[in-house]
Description:
7 helices, Arp2/3 complex 21 kDa subunit ARPC3, two-stranded antiparallel sheet, mainly alpha, 204 residues
Amino acid sequence: xxxxxxxxxTAIFAALATVLMYFEFYVPFMPPFLKVDxxxxxxxxxxxxxxxxxxxxxxLIKDLIHVTQTQTGGTGELQDFILIxxxxxxxxxxxxxxxxxxxxxxxxxxxxxxxxIAGMITNYLFILPFYANVMxxxxxxxxxxxxxxxxxxxxxETYLLIGVLPFNLIKCSIITCVTMLVYKKLxxxxxxxxxxxxxxxxxx
Length: 204
């Protein structure tokens, strides 16, 4: 694929991901400020087709756009960039060594597990403390919000183990399912368009 077309598709995928990031939905019993959107699926599909660098560029673009209207002091966008990048890097790296649908699924599963664990670590180290500081919201208030939907979340440990961890696993499962359903068909379509362009260029 030519560099120009790759840049064009990267911009298109980034725009789609940006739009989809606005359409969020809650997961039952999960902390109310943790919401799922399908922008990660667009990024992961783009990663399998165009590579890791393009996918990280897409992620950066959509998060920079969303940070201008952030409701989390930028922490949500920062966390999204870190975790989606981890998912992309691991999933695509494994797929490159096993270029089959099975390899893609294994890559997504391992990437999802690593991403979910990373989500707990980043939340504990800086995301949640920074969010509490920027939003001027004590951690106790956050635990109270969580308890309104899940009474078992009573502090940092339970927040991470029965809040952040299962949430990210659910989110990754949704992203993986959408990616597996769409990736191959879209990849074939884009490659056919590229072949047609190459044919026209050769004929001219």
